[in-house]
Amino acid sequence: VGMSIDPKLLASNFPVIIGTLGLLIAGKTVLVALVGRFFGISMVSAIRVGLLLAPGGEFAFVAFGEAVNQGIMSSQLSSLLFLVVGISMALTPWLAAGGQLIASRFELHDVRSLLPDESETDDLQDHIIICGFGRVGQIIAQLLSERLIPFVALDVRSDRVAVGRALDLPVYFGDAGSREVLHKIGAERACAAAVTLDSPGANYRTVWALSKYFPNVKTFVRAHDVDHGVNLEKAGATAVVPESLEPSLQLAAAVLAQAKLPMSEIAATINEFRCRHLSELTELSEMSGSSLGYGYSRMMSKP
């Protein structure tokens, strides 16, 4: 491509080449963006795709060369178009960076509309804070909604927040470990928080912030493993629930059912394992001075 570029031709026809280059990039960007919108992708994504596909391609050199051979295009026009396509290809990284910049600006503007506003939550009292609106957070939100218990959910993924907003739920974009964000959703008036964030570090930071700045809020958090649960207890969690216990027991029950065991025997086996596991957690909590597994032990002791 570089060997096909004539610097003298570029200097002598600079305005024409730059004008043609601008038409090529602008025209292809608009065209591809419109096609993207027609196929249902967002405007921001359509613009980014348009900028990525705006430069010319290598096949243009093959087409121009064949056009010259067939007498369809003059060699001078072909050389001009070689320059335009070659320069457009060289601009690809900058066009990609420009698309990323535009996307970040638009996404920032979109996210601002999802941020919590004190005026929207100032009437809440004794509500629940759901930190993380993933699969677990959405189930908790559904259960609270069915019981008409007021709650506010936070998540740092705008797509999850958009899902909640589409269901007309009070879900906001924000870091649950931020004192300012927690204040905006009325944490000082909340009674409890369910912390269900994806990463152990985010869970720990959120529990620590709630315990330090809003000690009135009881925090119930899921733990990835025992060590993580102990650290959460030390950070101030009211109750820690091991996230792998119940899903594992449900899966085991399904496997045992497939093995033709009677349902009564399956239930007894599962309950025996659950009780044994919780007793081990109780012993661990006594040794570590924490209440690991407290959420489960209270729930399972009632039956």
UniProtKB/TrEMBL annotation:
Membrane topology: Multi-pass membrane protein
Stated name of the protein: Potassium efflux antiporter
A Gene Ontology cellular-component term: chloroplast
Record organism: Genlisea aurea
Subcellular location as annotated: Membrane
Record InterPro entries: Cation/H_exchanger_TM, Na+/solute_symporter_sf, NAD(P)-bd_dom_sf, RCK_N
Pfam families recorded: Na_H_Exchanger, TrkA_N
Gene3D superfamilies with a match to the protein in the record: 1.20.1530.20, NAD(P)-binding Rossmann-like Domain (3.40.50.720)
